[in-house]
Amino acid sequence: MRWLRPLAITALCASIAACTTSPTGRSQLLLLSDSELNEMGRQAFTQYQQELPTADQASHRYVQCIADAIVAELPAQQQQLDWQIRVFKSEQPNAFALPGGYMGVNTGMLDVATNQDQLASVVGHEIGHVLANHANERASTESATSLGLSVISSTSGMQSAGGQQLMGVLGMGAQYGIVLPFSRAHESEADVIGLDLMAQAGFDPRESVTLWENMQAVSGGASPPPWMSTHPGQGQRIEGLQANMDRALARYEQARSNGRTPNCPRP
């Protein structure tokens, strides 16, 4: 597999120049500055709010209450981000995070997350994406992958129709072999970070499992094959949460004994 060598060399050189570790100790490739990404996140969030319908104020207050309780448990430096969360009108049970601390939750997720603890697992997960610089890592990985493929194309004389077809195959291989696995790793890592954060804030971490059981019931088991998905399977997510539950429960009990008992009225 000679064509893999330039890609591997490119990725290795890039990782040596900009290598760091995530909150869970996983090695990361980060090529972009925080200021650049935070500004991009701010602009994208502004556009979302201009183009997408938002929910009523009661829903905003409910989600904001949960987010505030979790953000209060972050280290002082991380609390300085411009943390903002909005609720958008959409039946799709989804949520997203943008660099800089900007988060969105669809009203469809409020239907699946039936109490504050379940929704705290969603909010904690999204905050976990931001804390772990996942947007930077995804963008950096895709940039390194594209650079590696362009090197292959220029050095191999792949200008014929057959060569272009091979480049398409290589692009698919890079997508399924490099980019998507990183995305699945991000989702699993955000699950773990979010589990700890919600527990530290006084939300019951066991409800994170219930949330994904609810998601399974809503989806009816319909999902793409794990190797073609940017997210782990729902069963895999439940297993990952349960594997880290003992530590989270210890943090939860400590939080409750210290008086952290969040009470966010559901609209």
Write the layout of secondary structure elements.
Blueprint: H1 4-17, E1 19-21, E2 27-29, H2 34-51, H3 57-71, H4 76-79, E3 84-88, E4 95-98, E5 102-106, H5 107-112, H6 116-131, H7 134-156, H8 161-200, H9 207-219, H10 234-243, H11 245-257
Parallel strand pairs: 3-5
Antiparallel strand pairs: 1-2, 4-5
Helix pairs in contact: 1-7, 3-6, 6-8, 6-9, 7-8, 8-11, 9-10
Would you write up a description of this structure?
- The chain has 267 residues and is mainly alpha-helical.
- The protein has one domain (4-257).
- The protein is 64% helix and 7% strand.
- It is built from eleven helices and five strands.
- The strands form two sheets. Strands 3-5-4 form a three-stranded mixed sheet.
- A hairpin with a 3-residue loop joins strand 4 (95-98) and strand 5 (102-106).
- Helix 6 (116-131) packs across helix 9 and helix 8 (161-200) packs parallel to helix 11.
- The radius of gyration is 20 Å and the shape is globular.
- 33% of the residues are buried.
- One of its GO terms (biological process) is proteolysis involved in protein catabolic process.
- Residues 1-17 form the signal peptide.
- This is Peptidase.
- Its cofactor is Zn(2+).
Structural descriptors:
single chain; 267 residues; mainly alpha; three-stranded mixed sheet; two-stranded antiparallel ribbon; 11 helices; 64% helix; 7% strand; globular; disordered N terminus; metal-binding; hydrolase; protease; Mito/Outer_Membr_Metalloprot
